[in-house]
């Protein structure tokens, strides 16, 4: 597979980029070099490699959910700029 100038122009158009002719040629060359390097992966023998989702073992670092005491309504509203009927009062965003 090879990236052409037309491919670069198409992607630049999608990204709303204006590229000079020199930049188009430069990007086409760079993208082709990336693809050539990625094709080397096809040479690897991976038949005996077990599929994984992570390279390192993953463990849950979250604590267990436990019911704990919560702050009181008065404490929660203590620093509120404005409250009404035990709730935060905020400016209306719709008319």
Automatic annotation (TrEMBL):
Domain of life of the native organism: Bacteria
EC number of this enzyme: 6.3.5.-
Entry-linked Pfam families: GatC (PF02686)
Catalytic activity: L-glutamyl-tRNA(Gln) + L-glutamine + ATP + H2O = L-glutaminyl-tRNA(Gln) + L-glutamate + ADP + phosphate + H(+); L-aspartyl-tRNA(Asn) + L-glutamine + ATP + H2O = L-asparaginyl-tRNA(Asn) + L-glutamate + ADP + phosphate + 2 H(+)
Record's keyword terms, sorted: ATP-binding, Ligase, Nucleotide-binding, Protein biosynthesis
Family stated for the protein in its record: Belongs to the GatC family.
PANTHER family attached to this UniProt entry: GLUTAMYL-TRNA(GLN) AMIDOTRANSFERASE SUBUNIT C, MITOCHONDRIAL (PTHR15004:SF0)
HAMAP family, sorted: GatC (MF_00122)
Protein name stated in the entry: Aspartyl/glutamyl-tRNA(Asn/Gln) amidotransferase subunit C
Lineage: Bacteria, Bacillati, Bacillota, Bacilli, Bacillales
Gene transcribed to yield this protein: gatC
């Amino acid at each position: 597979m090879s990236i052409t100038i037309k491919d670069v122009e198409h992607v630049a158009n999608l990204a709303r980029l204006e590229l000079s002719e020199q930049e188009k040629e430069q990007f086409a060359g760079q993208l082709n070099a990336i693809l050539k390097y990625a094709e080397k992966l096809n040479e690897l023998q991976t038949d005996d490699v077990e599929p994984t989702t992570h390279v390192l073992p993953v463990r849950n670092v979250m604590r267990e959910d436990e019911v704990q005491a919560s702050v009181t309504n008065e404490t929660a509203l203590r620093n509120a700029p404005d409250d009404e009927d035990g709730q935060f009062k905020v400016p209306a965003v719709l008319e």
